[in-house]
Design brief:
Number of domains: 2
Strand order of the largest sheet: 3-2-1-8-9-10
Distance between the termini: 38 Å
CATH class of the largest domain: Alpha Beta
Helix content: 10-25%
Structural class: alpha/beta
Length: 400
């Protein structure tokens, strides 16, 4: 189903002058400072500067990603975009990172997103303050009652071309149940929890900042409307008109430009995006009481995260090397000769390389590991310098 804009007026893009934008951003900054419960609502428009096309931009859009996906379908356009980046290798934008800083500074209480590109979660926005209404293309879930385990993958999890078929080829490692992608398509019901979380926060909010959304997809678009309906303020940053412009402060400009100005007025620095990869390692025993290692990728909160294409584990004492492939993740490593109580292992990770990150070798002293007690490591990669810059022991974040 396509919901592309049909008229030239709907597709028209509006632009405030720099002076107008500055005045409006000044008002927005004051609203944020005075707000007691500020939320943000994001759509596909916040990812266009990362090279990810939106849905409704017209043929003559100024955006380098070109016409939106539904616009191209509706018009049959074969126009090539100036930039086009896979969601897997897209870098979170200044807007994504500004939202993280606003949350850390105590201003932004909750983020409701229509985006499925996974960039909010990948950027590090805290999970307990985020509702991904339409799902995440890297997330699959077990729907078995009593399990409901989540699994992140560093690849798209969707398998079927049938929009209403959500089964993936993988099984839940917790209960053996079928795993499903989380993408929400037209005509499908929102998951109860994410919908309730969105509404609960919209009902509490006294200010909503809508960024890059046409505000036409129900019932998601009714959440910002709810803020205005119960007396709160609504600010919309978008190039095209929306159905709620009359009841909001409209800022007609590119979203990154607006957010950069906003952060300067709030005297907050937008953090740079650093790619962070977390690994969990622990000693285990098999059914024969033989000691080995359990290794897997995870996210900040301990959600299983399939990150690797391949992994080599070399035990320094015996020089035994065990080579594994991604299909085996989580990895169960049982050496034939090494002393698991005092050896040092070199774990060489080969990633999915969505950001062209090179292999990384982590040295682990087995004396630091205790049976069935996980240890967590964080690896940090600087995309601009194209090198791993840090690895350190870490702890998991807690869901509030």
């Amino acid at each position: 189903m396509s919901t592309a804009h049909k008229t030239d007026e709907e597709k028209k893009e509006y632009f405030d002058t720099p002076e107008e934008i500055d005045q409006k951003v000044e008002i927005l900054a004051e609203l944020i400072k005075k707000s007691k419960y500020f939320i943000a609502f994001t759509g596909a428009g916040i990812s266009t500067s990362a090279g990810v096309a939106d849905f409704r931009s017209g043929i003559n859009t100024v955006l380098p990603t070109g016409p939106g996906k539904w616009e191209k379908m509706a018009t049959g356009s074969q126009e090539k975009p100036k930039i086009s980046v896979s969601t897997l290798s897209a870098i979170p934008t200044p807007t994504h990172m500004a939202l993280i800083k606003l949350q850390e500074a105590g201003y932004l209480k909750y983020l409701i997103s229509q985006n499925t590109d996974g960039l909010h979660r990948r950027s590090g926005f805290p999970l307990q303050h985020l509702a991904e209404l339409h799902g995440n293309s890297n997330l699959e879930i077990c729907k078995k009652s009593g399990c409901e385990k989540q699994f992140l993958r560093d690849f798209r999890v969707r398998q079927s071309r049938n929009s209403h078929s959500h089964e993936t080829d993988r099984k839940c490692e917790n209960c053996g149940g079928t795993l499903y992608d989380t993408i929400l398509n037209f005509g499908e019901y929102y998951p109860e929890k994410v919908l309730n979380d969105g509404w609960e926060n919209a009902e509490k909010a006294d200010l909503c900042l809508s960024l890059g959304s046409s505000l036409r997809v129900k019932s998601a678009a009714e959440m910002p409307e709810e803020v205005a309906r119960h007396g709160g303020k609504h600010v919309i940053v978008n190039l095209q008109a929306t159905p709620y412009d009359d009841e909001a402060l409209r800022i007609n400009g590119l979203i990154d430009d607006v957010m950069i100005r906003l952060m300067k007025k709030l005297e907050l620095e937008i953090p740079s995006f650093i790619l962070k990869r977390r690994v969990m390692i622990k000693k285990i025993k098999d059914e024969n009481n033989k000691e080995g290692l359990f290794i897997r990728g995870i996210d900040d909160f301990g959600t299983p995260y399939q990150l690797f294409k391949r992994m080599k584990v070399t035990f320094s004492e015996s020089q035994e090397t065990i080579d594994t492939l991604s299909e085996q993740e989580p990895f169960h490593i049982f050496p034939k000769q090494s002393n698991m109580s005092k050896d040092i292992v070199a774990i060489k990770f080969r990633f999915q390389r969505n950001y062209l990150e090179p292999d990384y070798t982590l040295d682990v002293d087995l004396q630091d590991l205790k049976l069935d007690q996980p240890v967590y490591y964080q690896l940090e990669y600087n995309l601009h310098e194209k090198q791993w810059i840090k690895s350190s022991r870490t702890t998991l974040k807690k869901l509030e």
